[in-house]
Amino acid sequence: MTETSVHDWFSRYADDLLGFLRRKVGDFDAPDLVQDVFLRMLSYPSASVREPRAFLFRAAANLVVDHLRKESHRDHEDIADVSEELAASAPTPEDTAIGAERMERFRAALAELPPVSRHAFVLNRFDGMTHSEIAELLGISPKTVQRHIERALDHCLSRLEK
To answer: Which of 7, 38, 89, 140 has the smallest count of CB within 10 Å of its CB?
Structure first.
């Protein structure tokens, strides 16, 4: 195939091929596949191609199949990589035991707090309430709520560090 005939076919059919390939593989990969179609054209003798448009679209359809196979294989590799990462990051039995022990120490530390401090802390940290909302609920000032939460936090952290 001569470069002149490929150039003519490119100027005549490239936009149609691009539209076809965008529908099949998306905007990102379509321009590269259009170029690949025309690169394949260079390897064929021009006399053997009777219907250039049909030939180009058949070559494009074949490239779509190849492209989708590669993408599918790549997706499976990505899934395998993620699976390996998840398995590597999964907590060991030792990590689970340490976490359970810390949780028990945290519960014990909470139990040692005065009821108002514990209540303010739980409402803030676990229920997501603001200092103003807690103050209104408990009938105390927002500054007092802040002090209760700070004391509770300091107490729990000191117990967990031991």
So the answer is: 89
Q: Which domains does the chain have, with CATH numbers?
A: 3-88 (1.10.1740), 93-161 (1.10.10.10)
* Residue predicted with more confidence, 45 or 131: 131
Q: 25 Cβ partners below 8 Å, 6+ apart?
A: 33, 64, 67, 68
Mean pLDDT value across residues 23-52: 77
Contact between 58 and 44 under an 8 Å Cβ cutoff? The reply is: no
Q: Which of 16, 15, 4 is nearest to 42 (CA)?
A: 4
Spatial distance between the Cα atoms of 99 and 93, rounded to a whole number of angstroms: 10
Distances (CA, A) of 110 to 113, 126, 154: 5, 13, 11
Q: Is the pTM of this model over 0.70?
A: no
Q: Name the residue type at position 47.
A: A
Burial (0-12, 13-18, 19+ Cβ within 10 Å), 77: exposed
Residue ranges of alpha helices (H) inside the chain are: 3-25, 30-41, 52-89, 93-112, 115-125, 131-138, 142-161
